[in-house]
Amino acid sequence: MEQSRYIRVRFLGKGTYGEVHLYTDTQTDTNVAIKTIKVLQEGEGIHFTALREIMILQELIHPNIIRLHDVFYKNSNINLVLELAESALNDVIHLTSDESTTKGLLKQLLEGLAFMHENSVMHRDLKPGNLLISRNGQIKITDFGTAKIVCDVEAPRTTGVCTLWYQSPELLFGTKHYGKAMDMWSVGCIFAEMINKEPFLKGNTSIDQINKIFNTLGTPGEEDWKGMNILPNYWPSPASPRISFVRAFPTASNEARDLLEKMLMYDPRQRISASQALQHPYFSTGEPHASCGDIARILSNYIR
Ligand code: AMP
Q: Where are the transmembrane segments (predicted)?
């Protein structure tokens, strides 16, 4: 692709593998975000995370997944031309306290995730910073550098993925046989954060994180999570009771609390899936969910 087509406007952000800048596409007269990723070393090719992101984004075309428009190579850099989404959920999470806005954002996140999971992709790093919001109020799941294509065969997977605060207990206990349910744990943590406007479980280390989970949701027994005690990093923890969700989430409706509990089930086999969550009564009762237009209006002062 002819790179002079793009005129640089300003810096947008820095990720683990490259910088992202706002450009104007002179052919379409629209703004785009271009992520620039350096090749490892001369002759060594590009970093595998870039390849992974390109391969996955080319397949996943959905309104709630960031769109990859184009890829070009320039000055030993690979450039991903992405749809622009000027805000991120972590910048605006303090605005999501009312049920209608939270419901609208969660619905979009689940729709994007259900599509991704139906297409056999796990994101593996869902967090508010990776949920961009476009000017027209649409959630755009981004940063597929650690995403993975899953097949039905339970092949061992890499451990150490996912940001600590959003990491599921099976990952914290070192399992290599995790699945799409790990993304749903992260969604539960994001949902809790939208309700209370602050991160739900803020651990400093893996041990601290698992202790925070147990002190909040109660220490699980064999009946809650069969097979937990054979996971590689399992250690027996002192029994801790579950806190009251009514007290922990006083502004949430009963349906919101019920859905949250189902997202935060210890046993990944019992955790609600993205498509099941979309059928939960939370979305069909009480406050109607905010539309993209409503979200765009609320967020209009926070566009970066
Ligand atoms: P990433 O490498 O994907 O983690 O991106 C690094 C940062 O660049 C993000 O935290 C955002 O601030 C920004 N960014 C990434 N993609 C986009 C996009 N499509 N539109 C606007 N900003 C973006």
A: none
- Helical (H) or strand (E) element with 77: strand 77-83
Provide the edge-to-edge strand list for the sheet that holds 30-38.
Answer: 6-14, 18-25, 30-38, 77-83, 68-74
Among the listed residues 70, 91, 125, 143, the single catalytic one is 125
Q: In what order do the strands lie in the sheet with 131-133?
A: 87-88, 131-133, 139-141
Name the range with the highest mean pLDDT among 56-65, 96-105, 220-229, 235-244: 56-65
Q: What's residue 41's pLDDT?
A: 63
Q: In angstroms, rounded to a whole number, what is the distance separating the alpha carbons of residues 299 and 304?
A: 10
Give the residue from 61, 83, 105 where a domain finishes: 83
Residues 109 and 46 in one domain: no
Domain of residue 231, CATH code: 1.10.510.10
| Residues 105 and 215 both lie in one domain | yes
- SS3 helix, strand, coil % of the chain, rounded to 5? 40, 20, 45
pLDDT digits (tens, 9 = 90+) for 278-298: 999 999 998 899 999 999 988
List residues near ligand 1 (CB under 6 A): 12-15, 20, 33, 35, 66, 82-86, 129, 132, 142-143
Quick one: pLDDT band at residue 47, thresholds 50, 70, 90?
Answer: confident
Please state the rounded mean pLDDT for residues 122-129: 95
Would you state the pLDDT for residue 231? 87
